[in-house]
Amino acid sequence: MSKNTIKNGFTLIELLVVIAIIAILAAILFPVFAQVREKARQITCTSNCKQFELAILEYADDNDEGMPFAWNIQAQVGLKAAKDSGKAPAGMYLTIMPYVKSYEVFGCPDDKGLQVTVSGPAGANYVPILNLNGSKNTSGFSEKNGISAYDMFGMAYKFTKENFSFVGGQYGQKAFACTSSPATNCLVPATPGVPSVFVSGATPPPVPMTLSYFAQPSGTRMIRDFNAPADLESWAKGAWHPAGYNIGFADGHVKFVNKAAVQGKDFTCDGPTKSQNFDGSCNSAGLERI
After folding, report:
1. Which of 77, 88, 169, 239 sits a CA distance of 20 to 30 A from 71?
2. Which domain holds residue 85?
3. What average pLDDT does this structure show over 222-246?
């Protein structure tokens, strides 16, 4: 006589309990995985900024302490924009490329694309390119909303122009106005606590800008993530990293600043010619840019 065999298995309730446990674990772990991935992108971006800092210092060392020419970010032409427009690639990224040695380093892994508010052809939002003298481009060239900063301007980072050799009316910068009021882009004696708005004694910044002109290099912001929170361009929206942004300083160090601490408290100078809050001079000459 054969014995009946009983097959063991899970009951429906047991299966539901296991599925519920898996769902709970997934709900807990997936956000952690997302945070880890974002942290990795943030660290990559920090590393990129560090490479830029070293490249700029090497450039200055090869040029008698002279800094590269300052570019208005909107006048730069990235490789994709150059291909689409027929223009030649142009910008700071080409100047320091021999020291960086990799074009990909200029792209931020969190570059979500530019979201602009200006209207272009047929009413569509677009990203403009300026002429090299700082005037608006009238040729009609633009890229559609959503193009990455890397593709449009050759980099997803902003190199603060006050740190570099600033020539008014070139490289997309506006011309100097040292005899108007206020004397834009010019230097005047710094008075702590008082915004500089007077023309008297206004002079252009030195060209070339030299490392010896930096009075507070460890507190001078030189590079930052392009779309930093609370530091947005008027034509672009959003932030690369949700938690904050990277700052590269003139002495070569880089740090990530949490979004809650972004309001100008993590650096003293925005370039040697311009203090953050009219709190005195940031350069060896005791002057300040308006």
Report:
1. 239
2. 13-289
3. 71
